[in-house]
Amino acid sequence: MITAEHTSINKVQYFNGLNEKEQDTQDTMPAFTPTTSSLVTESNVMTQETVGKPFVKSPRMTCREVNVWYDDKQAIMDVNIDIGKNQVLAMIGPSGCGKSTFLRCLNRMNDTVPICRVDGEIILDGLDIYDKKIDVVPLRAKVGMVFQKPNPFPKSIYDNIAYGPKIHGLVNNQTELDEVVEYSLTKAGLWDEVKDRLDQPGTGLSGGQQQRLCIARAIAVRPEIILMDEPCSALDPIATATVEDLIDELREQYTIVIVTHNMQQAARVSQRTAYFHLGKLIEVGITDQLFTNPSHQLTEDYITGRFG
Amino acid sequence: MYIRTQMGHQDKKTTTKASATERVQLGLAKRRRKEERFRKLSFAAVLLSIGFLVLLFASIISNGWPAFQRTDILLDVHFDQKVLDVNSLVNANYGKLVKQAMRDVFPEVTSRRDKRELYRLVSSGASYELQKMVTADPTLIGKTVSLWLPADDLTDMLMKGKIDRSLPEAERPISNKQIQWIDQLIAQKRLKKNFNTTFFQAGDSREPELSGIKGALTGSLFTLLVTLVLSFPVAVAAAIYLEEFAPKNKWTDLVEVNINNLAAVPSIVFGLLGLAVFLNFFGMPRSSPLVGGMVLSLMTLPTIIIASRASLKAVPPSIREAALGVGASKMQTVFHHVIPLAMPGMMTGTIIGLSQALGETAPLLMIGMVAFIVDVPGSVTDPATVLPVQIFLWADSPERAFVERTSAAILVLLMFLISMNGVAIYLRRKFERRW
Amino acid sequence: MKKTLLIAACLLLASDVWAGGRDYVSIVGSSTVYPFATTVAERFGKTSSFKTPKIESTGSGGGMKLFCAGTGIDSPDITNASRRIKKSEYDTCLKNGVKEIVEVKVGYDGIVLANSKKATRFNLSKRDIYLALARIVPDPKGSNGFIENPYTNWKEVNASLPDIKIEVMGPPPTSGTRDAFDELAMQGGCKTFPWVKALKKSDKKKFKTVCEALREDGAYIEAGENDNLIIQKLEANPNALGIFGFSYLDQNADKIQGAIVDGVAPDFDKISDGSYSISRSLYMYVKKSHAEVVPGLKEFLAEFSSDRAWGDEGYLSEKGLIPMPEEERAQVGKTVKELIPLQL
């Protein structure tokens, strides 16, 4: 697979895609600045396995050569990808392909797993988040997360939202806190449904409402990036549709990375899609393109339903 | 696969399917019988344990119930000025007043021997009561007052039917004359069984009719308070560290094994430790609830740690992830979310540990809490004893009237336990949150 | 909730810090003397302005150990004993700085062998007791040798005794009652064999093991320190005998009867005048150095040695203590008053 020919093809595709995108939205661009040019050259070697367009013009986060091990078992191998600003990146792939693991690397949630080891660099605002100097608390405030199963705190709806702002000291008084709660719930499309019962437990809501509550909770700490780990897998189709609409709205303000099993969902909500397979990032591309015209055989097999 | 086989059979014999159902039916009856038998057996086991419990309670209650009543004698006490010198009320002979009052009721008793027997019908505590009254209100001197004074334990036993009147005189602790006087007193309505308030207001005593449970109860309360204050925070902190913060390695494994072992160490060992360390090394006061509580906290620590760890483990990881996800630090996650959810379990563990501690006597023996202590303790450094020790001491006393007091003390201990468990249930309900 | 408790505990601690003196008398020692000492203590506490003394029942040996550990305020002022202080214990005391010890003889206690009223009363000699309970006994065939105790039935011990299996419940070796029983009853019976008695002079150690070792084949049952338990067991089993202090027999005279030993039945007068042979003296040992330091100690001793307490008609006799003769009381009373230390 690692042949010169292959590399050159990749290169061509890479730039072709770029040009196309430039015309389209001017959103995804290779970095032409001298500082990152070396990275591009380097990544040419690296992307021998990742086809498509893993890099964008003005990335919010850049991941280079990320490897993850659970004890001796390698779960993620040499992943290189950029996460674009104010767009939704969907990560798809068969079960156990490492997409959730990779997602959890982005806000260091993997720290809670003692046997998990991460190397490579994941850069946010010019700093490697795995640097020793980085404190996970501000990182996680900046990179919020929504989990697979709705997990509101066993507290009131109000307290669920207010918790984050309170511990981070984002508000100065009760009025401001009330505003944050209303803003977050409104943003999550839940305000009208719960405004009269903010003091009731969050666990009493329906599954879809709970998940939106969790999204509102994530929004309340004013993150810049929101990670979503199969946020709709425990929801019925109607609730799923509501959450998907919500994700689409949130894109205007936030950068979103979503892991999903549901390819239609990926197609509906995301602008870019990354396909993982057995710990490797196989292909990244503009969502429409990836689904209609995948470059890699594995991607094609997966989206046409041959496995997974 | 299964369907295919069945299809194959159907090709050969059409009856195969029917016979399979039949077979299931046959087996079904057997299965039902087995289930029925098992259910009956387990029900019998429950009945058996309830039966034993009822038996235990019945015997304790029937034994202990009479102790809640005490026989009093109505006497017209004349607070004689000649006996009571205002200047030395402490040293006055109050017994004389009681004796005079008894003689007034039975003027016909004259011989010295008979008088002695007569005086024995009244408790020696009667004079203490008079002393208390006069000290509180010296204006009583010179007056005559009708008072209900405690009767002797033998009078009490006779009134309660614990002494067999039909036995020959030599074999019963109470003489024919005394029985005759008691009958006279009953006829004059001067003997009455009252609710035994002394039992709840006094400390230990050598006279059964004057003995009470308050000293031991207060001692138990103080001891448990010290145990709670010491063991709960330490045990919870240890559990939190081990469960949430400690790295999982050989050292923490070793610590865990040791904690589990400690939970099974006989309590007397902690008593010896307490003797060596708290008393001999630190020179803390012997027989005090402070040291008792410290020794018992050593004993309850492992129990609470194990229970607390189990309840911390039971908190779903999703809650931790949720908190970490919004940027809470590890400590905030633990203190804001995990502990509140684990609190009911921790409290249950604590109450179980304290209940164990409540029933403990062996370690207290070593630090001098198995003692005769009359004064009700006023602080954690006063000498004190505890309920189970009081039960042990009374059970070992030669006087017959202590038998019923022993059972009554057991009842008080059981009530204490029940109320502790009640508090546990209440706290659990109050703090329990669903997720 | 937790905070309130914590504050409450802190206040309690602060209200009474233990550093400093002790304002009550601390007593340890024998469980036999315990009922008497507690009775005096209670009276003393209720009728005087002092606090009620604290009394721990630790057994004679345990009490001595605590008593002799030192002289500080943490150590007990008095230890009770159902036997005299041993030379070794006295030496330990001296070594630990407990220099002046006042010995107070309190009175007598009889050790009784009793059985249920439902059975016939035993009439035993000390020799019978020894032969029934010793681990090894002189060979019945006459040679001057010892054999393992072969008797299983009282009748085998002495033909005049009833045809009942030997079954005796008594205290464990830690008990003072057991010490006294070994010394008075067992040794006494042992000495009725002249050649064994001669052994006392030639081989004291062997004499002691021969005479005092109780059998371990089930005929002697160690029933623990709780004498009430022994009485309950005796009621349930009319064939069994029990060994305990006289006060228990006194309190339970309707249920059990004491065996006649060497022709004398155990009762108040017979123990008092010394004709009942298995009786012992009870003692208190007091630290003279504490007398000036601990408030109430001297007054407590005065109460104990007053006539209304230990006199012939005193309240201790009601509790089963057998008083000393009047002259002896006067003599001991003087020792108490002047706190004359013991010389060993």
List its salient traits.
A: 308 residues, alpha/beta, seven-stranded mixed β-sheet, 12 helices, B: 435 residues, mainly alpha, MetI-like fold, three-stranded antiparallel β-sheet, 65% helix, 6% strand
Multimerization state: heterotrimer
β-sheet strand percentage of chain C: 15-25%
Low-confidence stretches of chain C: 11-19
First CA to last CA of chain B: what distance?
A: 42 Å
What's the domain count of chain C? 2
Instruction: Report the major sheet of chain C.
Output: 9 strands, mixed
**Strand-pairing-aware structural class of chain C:** alpha/beta
In the predicted model, the low-confidence regions of chain B spanning at least 5 consecutive residues are: none
Report the CATH C-level class of the largest domain in chain B.
Mainly Alpha
Radius of gyration of chain B: 33 Å
Helix-strand string of chain C = HEHEHEHEEHEEHEHHHEHEHEEHEHHHH
Tell me how many strands of chain C there are.
13
Assigned CATH superfamily of the largest domain in chain C: Periplasmic binding protein-like II
Helix and strand content put the structural class of chain B at mainly alpha
Report on this structure.
The complex is a heterotrimer of chains A (about 300), B (about 425) and C (about 350). By secondary structure, chain A is of the alpha/beta class. Chain A has a domain at about 85-115 and about 125-305: Rossmann fold (3-Layer(aba) Sandwich). Chain A contains 12 helices and 11 strands. Chain A has helices at about 5-25, 35-45, 100-105, 135-140, 155-170, 175-185, 190-195, 205-220, 235-250, 265-270, 285-290, 295-305; strands spanning about 50, 60-70, 75-85, 90, 115-125, 125-130, 145, 225-230, 255-260, 270-275, 280-285. The longest helix of chain A is centred in the N-terminal third of the chain and has 21 residues, at about 5-25. Chain A is globular, with a radius of gyration of 20 Å. Mean pLDDT of chain A is about 80; it is low at about 1-45. Chain B is mainly alpha-helical. Chain B folds into 3 domains: about 1-65; about 70-200, no CATH class; about 215-430, Orthogonal Bundle (MetI-like fold), CATH 1.10.3720.10. Chain B has 17 helices and 4 strands. Chain B has a 3-stranded antiparallel beta sheet with strand order 2-1-3. In chain B, α10 packs across α12 (about 290-315). With about 350 residues, chain C is of the alpha/beta class. Chain C has 2 domains: about 20-110 and about 280-340, Periplasmic binding protein-like II (D-Maltodextrin-Binding Protein, domain 2); about 110-280, 3-Layer(aba) Sandwich (D-Maltodextrin-Binding Protein, domain 2), CATH 3.40.190.10. In chain C, about 40% of the residues lie in helices and about 15% in strands. Chain C has helices at about 1-15, 35-45, 60-65, 85-95, 125-135, 155, 175-190, 195-200, 205-210, 225-235, 245-250, 270, 295-305, 305-310, 315-320, 325-340, and strands spanning about 25-30, 55, 80, 100-115, 125, 135-140, 145-150, 170, 220, 240-245, 255-260, 260, 280-285. In chain C, α2 (about 35-45) links the parallel β1 and β2 (about 55). Chain C starts with a helix and ends in a 6-residue tail after the last helix. Chains B and C meet through α9 and β4 of B and α1, α2, β2 and α11 of C. β4 (about 370) of chain B pairs antiparallel with β2 (about 55) of chain C.
